[in-house]
Amino acid sequence: MCLATLIYLLTHLLIEVGRVEFTVIEVPDVVYEVLARKAKYLGRTVVDVIVDSVISNLDPESRVEVYLKLHDKYLSDAEDLYRRGDLTQASEKYWGAVYAILSAIAESGGLPHFRHGHFEELIELLSEELNDRELPKLFASAERLHANFYHGFLRKFGFEIHREDVLKLVEKLRNYLTELRSTRC
User: Fold this and answer.
1) By C-alpha distance, which of 68, 63, 22 is closest to 45?
2) In the prediction, which pLDDT does 161 show?
3) Residue in 38, 59, 41, 57 with CA at minimum distance from that of residue 49
4) Are 94 and 138 in contact (CB under 8 A)?
5) Which residue would you say has higher pLDDT here, 25 or 134?
6) How far apart are CA 26 and CA 43, in angstroms?
7) Phi, psi angle pair for 21, to nearest 5°
């Protein structure tokens, strides 16, 4: 196992102290390097690339269900990390919750969601469709939290402003997806 893989896995295991939430999978260095390059190109994490690769082999409704479960997990983890005061790690989990719910919406509509730009486009489409000018602003807060994970620049006051926006965004997106799915049944 390459050092980067080991550090990545240990970091995630430490985040989840007391809870078994990750399974360690050993991959050859060359495979991890390919995954890391693809993740960087896509603006995603290695885990996101692996999840998307596995999910792509499922039928569309199963993919939506998996993304919804991921959304719930990321949101729950984010709230737990927030309560513990780990704002940097919570930032990425809130972003993960947004990424997962947007992926579920994209899957439901047959839209791409494999690059960061796809999420930008989806938010613009939803904003126009729902005539909700607040969606892009709320999404910008999610992006701010995502950036905070990498750079750790937010203090608690600023973090809480963006957290509130993300929770509001997630609620709007969940409501939209619920309505979308109910009209298709």
Assistant:
1) 22
2) 98
3) 38
4) no
5) 134
6) 23
7) -125, -10
What Cα–Cα distance (Å) separates residue 121 from each residue in 85, 102, 108, 111?
33, 11, 15, 10
More confident residue, 133 or 52: 133
Joined together, the tokens standing for residue 40 give 């960087």
* pLDDT exceeds cutoff 50 at 137: yes
How is residue 95 written in tokens? 């972003």
Contacts 24+ apart (CB under 8 A), 151-154: 152/88, 154/87, 154/91
Q: What residues contact residue 84 under an 8 Å CB cut-off, 6+ apart?
A: none
Tell me the C-alpha distance between 128 and 171, whole Å.
Answer: 18
Q: Name the token pair of 59.
A: 């039928």
What local confidence, expressed as pLDDT, does residue 113 receive? 87
Is 70 exceeded by the pLDDT of residue 5? no
Nearest Cα to Cα of residue 69 among 90, 103, 100, 24: 100
Whole-angstrom Cα distance, residue 23 to residue 8? 12
pLDDT, tens digit, for every residue of 67-124? 999 999 999 999 999 999 999 999 999 999 999 999 999 999 999 988 889 999 999 9
Tell me how long the chain is.
185
